[in-house]
Design a protein that fits this description.
Elements (H helix, E strand, L loop, with lengths): L3 E10 L3 H12 L6 E14 L2 E14 L2
Antiparallel strand pairs: 1-3, 2-3
Length: 66
């Protein structure tokens, strides 16, 4: 039997939504073991000078509780 814990993360990137997701997961993997899945909950960003300045993605990440 597996039990999972979920945490909420906000990833950011000046390049893309995909990079924002990857950045959040990469940082979380530095301190969490057993990362198994993620779910995108929110997408937003900031605008500066009429252009996209930064992408922000709220994700929930699940990992196995040992």
């Amino acid at each position: 039997m597996k039990v999972y814990k979920k945490i909420t993360l906000v990833g950011t990137s000046s390049e893309s939504l995909e990079d924002a997701i990857k950045n959040a997961i990469a940082k979380a993997s530095e301190t969490l073991r057993g990362l198994s899945w993620f779910e995108v909950k929110e997408i937003r960003g900031s605008i500066e000078g009429g252009k996209v300045r930064e992408y922000q993605v709220v994700i929930e990440v699940g990992f196995v509780v040992e």
